[in-house]
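STRUCTURE:
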């Protein structure tokens, strides 16, 4: 059993890491940064080490933003080999909040857990040089990375065929603007997020559409 936990907490490849600026010093010449692992890399690590039957995740939507520039908040309960841990993730969409919640819950098991560090920061170019992390090897040189900008708004539905989760996010946003955010959250919670399989996702979308249609009628 100890071997499983050791393998789960092994360092990730550099290309699987992203960096988040948590805070800036008063003169904006220093940044407190946190490395975090991509959502897809966490899923792959769980499947490879614990096996697809060796872990489970469940979610609860705890906040839907009241304003357009607000954040969704989602709580993830991650169970690995009968051990469960929880954490809350945030994002400017439900998709982002669900992914962040899983990454944060996984970190409580030691998966992709890295310390926050202060580094030199260029406020003009919004750049910093991440420090070398343990397990990367002495010959590895971290490249200069730019602070990730906020994600642009998704294109209109007519321009492309979005994934079901994107459609659901947009529908929830319309419901929130119509004052039905709490009702939408209750429906999402009933399905544990986007649904555990395509049929549940379709049912979720249908109920949200019916809620919006009922408001318009």
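SEQUENCE:
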């Amino acid at each position: 059993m100890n071997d499983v936990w050791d393998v789960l907490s092994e360092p990730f490849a550099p290309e699987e890491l992203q960096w988040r600026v948590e805070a800036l010093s008063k003169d904006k010449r220093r940044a407190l940064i946190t490395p975090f692992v991509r959502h897809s890399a966490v899923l792959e690590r769980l499947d490879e080490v614990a096996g697809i039957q060796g872990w489970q995740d469940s979610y609860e939507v705890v906040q839907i933003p009241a304003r357009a520039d607000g954040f969704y908040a989602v709580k993830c309960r991650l169970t690995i080999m009968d051990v469960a841990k929880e954490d809350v993730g945030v994002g400017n969409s439900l998709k982002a909040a669900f992914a962040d919640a899983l990454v944060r819950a996984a970190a409580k098991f030691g998966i992709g857990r890295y310390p926050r560090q202060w580094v030199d920061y260029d406020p003009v170019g919004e750049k910093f040089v991440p420090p070398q992390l343990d397990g990367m090897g002495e010959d590895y040189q971290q490249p200069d990375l730019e602070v990730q900008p906020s994600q642009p708004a998704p294109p209109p539905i007519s321009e492309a065929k979005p994934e079901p989760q994107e459609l659901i996010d947009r529908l929830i946003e319309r419901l929130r603007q119509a004052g039905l955010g709490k009702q939408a959250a209750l429906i999402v919670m009933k399905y544990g997020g986007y649904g555990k399989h395509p049929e549940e996702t379709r049912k979720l979308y249908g109920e949200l559409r019916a809620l919006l249609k009922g408001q318009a009628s």
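REMARK: The CA atoms of residues 66 and 176 lie 7 Å apart.
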